[in-house]
Protein backbone atom coordinates (compact mmCIF):
# COMPACT_ATOMS: atom_id res chain seq x y z
CA UNK A 1 0.00 0.00 0.00
CA UNK A 2 1.33 3.41 -0.95
CA UNK A 3 1.89 6.01 1.72
CA UNK A 4 -0.46 8.37 -0.18
CA UNK A 5 -3.32 5.93 0.38
CA UNK A 6 -3.01 6.45 4.13
CA UNK A 7 -3.22 10.20 3.89
CA UNK A 8 -6.50 11.89 4.63
CA UNK A 9 -8.25 13.79 1.89
CA UNK A 10 -9.39 17.05 3.50
CA UNK A 11 -12.24 17.43 0.99
CA UNK A 12 -13.65 14.02 1.83
CA UNK A 13 -13.35 14.65 5.57
CA UNK A 14 -15.03 18.03 5.38
CA UNK A 15 -18.32 18.15 7.28
CA UNK A 16 -21.40 17.97 5.07
CA UNK A 17 -24.30 20.31 5.94
CA UNK A 18 -27.38 18.25 6.67
CA UNK A 19 -29.52 20.39 4.40
CA UNK A 20 -27.51 19.22 1.39
CA UNK A 21 -28.89 15.72 1.91
CA UNK A 22 -32.44 16.90 1.23
CA UNK A 23 -32.36 16.32 -2.56
CA UNK A 24 -31.26 12.70 -2.10
CA UNK A 25 -33.88 12.30 0.61
CA UNK A 26 -36.56 13.47 -1.82
CA UNK A 27 -35.29 10.99 -4.41
CA UNK A 28 -35.44 8.11 -1.95
CA UNK A 29 -38.90 9.21 -0.82
CA UNK A 30 -40.04 9.20 -4.45
CA UNK A 31 -38.75 5.63 -4.82
CA UNK A 32 -40.70 4.64 -1.73
CA UNK A 33 -43.81 6.23 -3.22
CA UNK A 34 -43.43 4.25 -6.43
CA UNK A 35 -43.01 0.96 -4.56
CA UNK A 36 -45.97 1.81 -2.32
CA UNK A 37 -48.05 2.33 -5.44
CA UNK A 38 -47.33 -1.27 -6.43
CA UNK A 39 -48.29 -2.42 -2.94
CA UNK A 40 -51.63 -0.61 -3.18
CA UNK A 41 -52.22 -2.26 -6.56
CA UNK A 42 -51.61 -5.68 -5.02
CA UNK A 43 -54.22 -4.79 -2.39
CA UNK A 44 -56.67 -3.66 -5.07
CA UNK A 45 -56.46 0.02 -4.05
CA UNK A 46 -55.80 1.32 -7.55
CA UNK A 47 -56.73 4.93 -6.87
CA UNK A 48 -54.03 5.12 -4.22
CA UNK A 49 -51.64 3.44 -6.67
CA UNK A 50 -52.07 6.29 -9.13
CA UNK A 51 -51.76 8.83 -6.32
CA UNK A 52 -48.42 7.32 -5.29
CA UNK A 53 -47.04 7.55 -8.83
CA UNK A 54 -48.27 11.15 -9.01
CA UNK A 55 -46.48 11.93 -5.74
CA UNK A 56 -43.32 10.29 -7.10
CA UNK A 57 -43.59 12.48 -10.22
CA UNK A 58 -43.89 15.65 -8.14
CA UNK A 59 -40.93 14.69 -5.96
CA UNK A 60 -38.89 13.89 -9.07
CA UNK A 61 -39.52 17.40 -10.32
CA UNK A 62 -38.38 18.89 -7.02
CA UNK A 63 -35.21 16.96 -6.15
CA UNK A 64 -33.10 18.17 -9.07
CA UNK A 65 -34.16 21.78 -8.66
CA UNK A 66 -33.49 21.62 -4.94
CA UNK A 67 -30.04 20.15 -5.59
CA UNK A 68 -29.19 23.00 -7.94
CA UNK A 69 -30.55 25.55 -5.47
CA UNK A 70 -28.44 24.12 -2.63
CA UNK A 71 -25.47 23.47 -4.95
CA UNK A 72 -25.39 19.88 -3.77
CA UNK A 73 -25.26 18.06 -7.12
CA UNK A 74 -23.18 14.91 -6.98
CA UNK A 75 -22.56 11.76 -9.07
CA UNK A 76 -24.29 9.74 -6.34
CA UNK A 77 -27.38 11.95 -6.56
CA UNK A 78 -27.47 11.62 -10.34
CA UNK A 79 -27.31 7.82 -10.13
CA UNK A 80 -29.97 7.71 -7.42
CA UNK A 81 -32.24 9.90 -9.52
CA UNK A 82 -31.86 7.73 -12.61
CA UNK A 83 -32.50 4.49 -10.72
CA UNK A 84 -35.51 5.97 -8.91
CA UNK A 85 -36.92 7.20 -12.23
CA UNK A 86 -36.72 3.71 -13.69
CA UNK A 87 -38.54 2.31 -10.68
CA UNK A 88 -41.19 5.03 -10.48
CA UNK A 89 -41.88 5.60 -14.17
CA UNK A 90 -40.95 2.28 -15.78
CA UNK A 91 -41.61 -0.52 -13.30
CA UNK A 92 -44.40 0.78 -11.06
CA UNK A 93 -46.87 1.94 -13.78
CA UNK A 94 -46.35 -1.26 -15.78
CA UNK A 95 -47.08 -3.47 -12.78
CA UNK A 96 -50.04 -1.35 -11.68
CA UNK A 97 -51.62 -1.51 -15.13
CA UNK A 98 -51.00 -5.23 -15.40
CA UNK A 99 -52.73 -5.83 -12.07
CA UNK A 100 -55.57 -3.46 -13.03
CA UNK A 101 -56.55 -4.83 -16.44
CA UNK A 102 -53.71 -6.16 -18.62
CA UNK A 103 -53.71 -9.52 -16.84
CA UNK A 104 -57.12 -10.13 -18.42
CA UNK A 105 -55.38 -10.80 -21.74
CA UNK A 106 -52.76 -13.05 -20.15
CA UNK A 107 -49.31 -13.21 -21.69
CA UNK A 108 -50.02 -10.47 -24.21
CA UNK A 109 -50.78 -8.04 -21.41
CA UNK A 110 -47.57 -9.01 -19.62
CA UNK A 111 -45.60 -8.49 -22.84
CA UNK A 112 -47.12 -5.00 -23.15
CA UNK A 113 -46.03 -4.23 -19.58
CA UNK A 114 -42.53 -5.48 -20.34
CA UNK A 115 -42.36 -3.38 -23.51
CA UNK A 116 -43.36 -0.24 -21.64
CA UNK A 117 -40.74 -0.88 -18.96
CA UNK A 118 -38.04 -1.47 -21.58
CA UNK A 119 -39.03 1.70 -23.43
CA UNK A 120 -38.63 3.66 -20.20
CA UNK A 121 -35.23 2.04 -19.64
CA UNK A 122 -34.10 3.03 -23.13
CA UNK A 123 -35.47 6.51 -22.57
CA UNK A 124 -33.50 7.01 -19.37
CA UNK A 125 -30.35 5.58 -20.95
CA UNK A 126 -30.68 8.14 -23.74
CA UNK A 127 -31.14 10.84 -21.12
CA UNK A 128 -27.95 9.83 -19.29
CA UNK A 129 -25.95 9.81 -22.52
CA UNK A 130 -27.35 13.21 -23.44
CA UNK A 131 -26.40 14.63 -20.06
CA UNK A 132 -22.83 13.38 -20.41
CA UNK A 133 -22.61 14.86 -23.91
CA UNK A 134 -23.83 18.24 -22.69
CA UNK A 135 -27.27 18.12 -24.37
CA UNK A 136 -29.17 19.04 -21.23
CA UNK A 137 -30.75 22.34 -22.28
CA UNK A 138 -33.33 22.79 -25.03
CA UNK A 139 -36.84 23.99 -25.67
CA UNK A 140 -37.78 20.54 -26.94
CA UNK A 141 -37.36 16.90 -25.98
CA UNK A 142 -37.18 13.92 -28.27
CA UNK A 143 -40.27 11.91 -27.51
CA UNK A 144 -42.32 11.92 -24.32
CA UNK A 145 -40.25 12.29 -21.10
CA UNK A 146 -40.45 9.33 -18.76
CA UNK A 147 -42.43 11.11 -15.95
CA UNK A 148 -45.02 12.29 -18.46
CA UNK A 149 -45.10 8.84 -20.04
CA UNK A 150 -45.78 7.24 -16.65
CA UNK A 151 -48.77 9.48 -16.07
CA UNK A 152 -50.07 9.23 -19.63
CA UNK A 153 -49.96 5.43 -19.59
CA UNK A 154 -52.32 5.45 -16.62
CA UNK A 155 -54.82 7.75 -18.32
CA UNK A 156 -57.36 4.91 -18.85
CA UNK A 157 -57.32 4.35 -15.09
CA UNK A 158 -57.77 8.06 -14.40
CA UNK A 159 -60.66 8.24 -16.88
CA UNK A 160 -62.32 5.27 -15.17
CA UNK A 161 -61.94 6.96 -11.77
CA UNK A 162 -63.22 10.31 -13.06
CA UNK A 163 -66.27 8.77 -14.75
CA UNK A 164 -67.15 5.56 -12.90
CA UNK A 165 -70.43 5.24 -14.81
CA UNK A 166 -68.71 4.74 -18.16
CA UNK A 167 -68.38 1.25 -19.65
CA UNK A 168 -65.25 -0.62 -18.63
CA UNK A 169 -62.30 -0.12 -20.98
CA UNK A 170 -61.52 -3.42 -22.77
CA UNK A 171 -58.21 -4.98 -21.74
CA UNK A 172 -57.08 -5.36 -25.34
CA UNK A 173 -57.59 -1.63 -25.94
CA UNK A 174 -55.58 -0.79 -22.83
CA UNK A 175 -52.85 -3.12 -24.10
CA UNK A 176 -52.60 -1.24 -27.39
CA UNK A 177 -52.58 2.07 -25.53
CA UNK A 178 -49.72 0.98 -23.25
CA UNK A 179 -47.65 -0.06 -26.28
CA UNK A 180 -48.39 3.27 -28.00
CA UNK A 181 -47.23 5.33 -25.01
CA UNK A 182 -44.07 3.22 -24.75
CA UNK A 183 -43.29 3.91 -28.40
CA UNK A 184 -43.89 7.63 -27.90
CA UNK A 185 -41.27 7.62 -25.14
CA UNK A 186 -38.55 6.28 -27.42
CA UNK A 187 -39.70 8.11 -30.55
CA UNK A 188 -37.94 11.04 -32.21
CA UNK A 189 -40.97 13.33 -32.25
CA UNK A 190 -40.77 16.72 -30.62
CA UNK A 191 -42.36 17.43 -27.26
CA UNK A 192 -42.13 20.71 -25.42
CA UNK A 193 -39.66 21.13 -22.60
CA UNK A 194 -41.09 23.45 -19.96
CA UNK A 195 -37.79 23.84 -18.10
CA UNK A 196 -36.85 27.03 -19.93
CA UNK A 197 -40.28 28.67 -20.03
CA UNK A 198 -40.07 32.34 -19.06
CA UNK A 199 -42.86 34.78 -18.29
CA UNK A 200 -42.96 38.58 -18.02
CA UNK A 201 -42.27 39.66 -14.45
CA UNK A 202 -45.54 41.60 -14.35
CA UNK A 203 -47.47 38.37 -14.95
CA UNK A 204 -45.82 36.39 -12.15
CA UNK A 205 -48.69 37.06 -9.74
CA UNK A 206 -51.20 35.55 -12.16
CA UNK A 207 -49.08 32.46 -12.70
CA UNK A 208 -48.79 31.96 -8.94
CA UNK A 209 -52.55 32.40 -8.54
CA UNK A 210 -53.17 29.91 -11.34
CA UNK A 211 -50.82 27.39 -9.75
CA UNK A 212 -52.63 27.66 -6.43
CA UNK A 213 -56.02 27.24 -8.11
CA UNK A 214 -54.74 24.23 -10.06
CA UNK A 215 -53.47 22.65 -6.84
CA UNK A 216 -56.86 23.27 -5.21
CA UNK A 217 -58.66 21.67 -8.16
CA UNK A 218 -56.30 18.71 -8.04
CA UNK A 219 -56.95 18.27 -4.34
CA UNK A 220 -60.75 18.55 -4.57
CA UNK A 221 -61.38 17.06 -8.03
CA UNK A 222 -58.33 14.85 -8.40
CA UNK A 223 -59.30 12.58 -11.26
CA UNK A 224 -61.14 15.08 -13.45
CA UNK A 225 -58.32 17.62 -13.05
CA UNK A 226 -55.62 15.04 -13.73
CA UNK A 227 -57.47 13.82 -16.80
CA UNK A 228 -57.69 17.39 -18.15
CA UNK A 229 -53.96 17.88 -17.55
CA UNK A 230 -53.19 14.68 -19.45
CA UNK A 231 -55.40 15.69 -22.37
CA UNK A 232 -53.79 19.13 -22.42
CA UNK A 233 -50.32 17.56 -22.51
CA UNK A 234 -51.32 15.35 -25.43
CA UNK A 235 -52.52 18.50 -27.18
CA UNK A 236 -49.10 20.12 -26.66
CA UNK A 237 -47.52 17.16 -28.48
CA UNK A 238 -49.69 17.89 -31.53
CA UNK A 239 -48.82 21.58 -31.32
CA UNK A 240 -45.11 20.79 -31.06
CA UNK A 241 -45.31 18.57 -34.13
CA UNK A 242 -46.76 21.45 -36.12
CA UNK A 243 -44.34 24.04 -34.75
CA UNK A 244 -41.16 21.98 -35.04
CA UNK A 245 -41.51 18.71 -36.94
CA UNK A 246 -38.73 16.16 -36.76
CA UNK A 247 -36.32 15.09 -34.02
CA UNK A 248 -35.78 17.07 -30.85
CA UNK A 249 -33.43 17.13 -27.90
CA UNK A 250 -31.52 13.90 -27.48
CA UNK A 251 -31.35 13.79 -23.74
CA UNK A 252 -34.62 12.52 -22.27
Strand-helix topology:
Elements: H1 3-6, H2 10-13, H3 22-42, H4 46-70, H5 75-100, H6 107-132, E1 140-142, H7 146-153, H8 155-162, H9 171-186, E2 190-192, H10 204-220, H11 222-243
Antiparallel strand pairs: 1-2
Structure description:
Helix content is 70%, strand content 2%. The protein has one domain (17-243): CDP-alcohol phosphotransferase transmembrane (TM) domain (Four Helix Bundle (Hemerythrin (Met), subunit A)), CATH 1.20.120.1760. Helix 3 (22-42) runs antiparallel to helix 4 (46-70). The chain has 11 helices and 2 strands, in the order H-H-H-H-H-H-E-H-H-H-E-H-H.
Number of helices: 11
**CATH class division:** Mainly Alpha
As for the number of domains, it is 1
Mean pLDDT: 84
Element order: H for helix, E for strand: HHHHHHEHHHEHH
Strand order of the largest sheet: 1-2
User: Based on CA inertia axes, which overall geometry fits?
Assistant: globular
- Beta percentage is under 5%
Rg over C-alpha atoms, rounded to the nearest angstrom: 20 Å
CATH superfamily: CDP-alcohol phosphotransferase transmembrane (TM) domain
CATH architecture: Up-down Bundle
User: What is the percent of helical residues?
Assistant: over 70%
